[in-house]
Write a structure and sequence with these properties.
By secondary structure, this protein is α/β, with parallel strands linked by helices. It contains 10 helices and 11 strands. A hairpin with an 8-residue loop joins strand 8 and strand 9. Helix 5 packs across helix 7 and helix 8 runs parallel beside helix 9. The radius of gyration is 19 Å and the shape is globular. The protein starts with 24 loop residues before the first helix and ends with a strand.
Length: 295
Amino acid sequence: LRTSPLCCGLHPSAADFTPLLRTSPFCCGLYPLQEEPCEVDFDDPYLKLDFPSATTLPPPCISVNNVAFGYEEGRTLYRNCDFGLDCESRVAIVGPNGAGKSTFLRLLTGEIQPTEGHVGRHAKLMVAKFTQHHIEMMNPEKSSVNHMRDLTQEGVSVEEARKYLGRFGLSGDLALNPIKFLSGGQKSRLAFAELAWRSPHILLLDEPTNHLDLETIEALAMALNHFDGGVVFVSHDERLIEMVADELWVVNKGSDGAPGTVKVWHSSYEEYKERLQKEFATSGLVTNGTVKGVK
């Protein structure tokens, strides 16, 4: 079982090792400004999730070389991005909304191309990506079993579809009912089952904890730690970051016409949160440890 150095306040490149608290005023203080509220499902507290192991590829699986990107000419979102990913990577991408975190995931997959530099991928690399948009695009009239069966033109067998759904707690009537009757958390687990079926070398997850309760988030973290492939995820959820990530990539917004940046945070997650707290305090958004306007 893989455990995250950030969960213990450790980082591979940190100069000192600072213990992390699993609870923080940031959970109810700062992060509500960065994510939209959503309905949370309460799942089976004994739920276990399971991503089957992928075949390991030699590094690098993805290489980001001197990359810049902008949606409009003359307006660069970020520049000078240099990173490498392999089947051992456990990366959390953090930063304020609108900085370009989800955009960076799209650069990694090749959905969009950099305006400068190059993103290289191993010739045999398989990537699977989770987004809330993918869930919204599911056919609500289909059952989970038929959704899985339609993943290929040849059709996935009923037995194989049920096997992968069962890995994510979707069995019995849940697997046969139309998707429109599933809760938000159950739809997320259906999307996770699809990712698992694709047997990727690297999982890319964009806000995977929306609609998930604490127990399911912890089950997801355990499944990701058991997964023998790379994991890169965008999240504001401290529990997932502390339990899974061993590296933070911080996306910073540009200002005054200068492009933003994507940088490795060379310290603990606790120190990153302390920096956020200072920035919020300096900007006058925090009073007595809480964010103004957030109760």
